[in-house]
Amino acid sequence: MSTIIVDLILFCFMVLTAVAIMRLTNLFAITMLAGLFSLLAAALFVTLDAVDVAFTEAAVGAGISTVLMLGALALTVREEKPISHSIIIPVVCCFVTGAALIYGTLDMPAFGSPDSPVQTHVGGTYIERTKADTGVPNIVTAVLASYRGYDTLGETTVIFVAAISVLLLIGVPRKGASSRKKDEEA
Amino acid sequence: MHHHLILRVVAKLFLPFILLFALYVQWHGDYGPGGGFQAGVIFAVGFILYALVYGVDALVKVVSVKMLVIGMTAGLLIYAGTGVVALFTGVDYLDYSHLAHDPVHGQEWGILFVELGVGIAVASAMTAIFVAFSTREADIDDEDW
To answer: ipTM value of the model?
Structure first.
């Protein structure tokens, strides 16, 4: 019962944050609220006992991406441009997509159902065999690094490529020519 | 940010604990929540906090962009290299069973190494992205916020 109340409160806060993000035009406030949204999502993952995911969400979603968004914000304007076109088509698109997603969830197994594919396929095998196979108590780590090593290698490559792309596209100034100096010359 | 004395002192006080916590998350990932990815992000956060308070130029003096590029490449190569070493022990790519005298120990070593690779790669990549963004133009004035 208490978890339901906590879930409800967290979801209410998330909806409020999303509505506030929609209504605000100050990009700094929007960035901070997006970080808050991630933090609420992380709290929600904790109530689902997915601490590894919550940890990642808090560190990446609320932490690093907020800082990176602020860094990007420093290169652009502070206020959102006023909307000059009709909002009917975007609103219809959002509602249709949202309705389709909610319709999709109707077919999903109930939360925590023992018959769901998550419980009946490889999940049980991992729980049974991880300790004997790898000696690692944290099953999430064993799955990430050993059973699904290829996926994690791919993910690491994605981050590597992302950083390389940013360095190639934005680049960093040469030694000695600091950003502030360039600004003064301009 | 020369006038933010409290911020500077607190940031300096926090830095060793952030980095220590990152190392804890890295090496304790086998037992609790966390692992290379989270540890890398927290480690990068330590550097980014330093850059936010003391300026990016101070950060680049500590870790140059070249070092960051070497770091993220090395991290990825440690991961991929663990797989190649596994190949040479006569099993499949990224199968760590033969890395030590018995399969369970081999798995532990393998996981340790690939997590280390992920940690180094993520920490370097995140810091590099931040440095690229924040050296692009001068910091905006404190009054503008």
So the answer is: 0.86
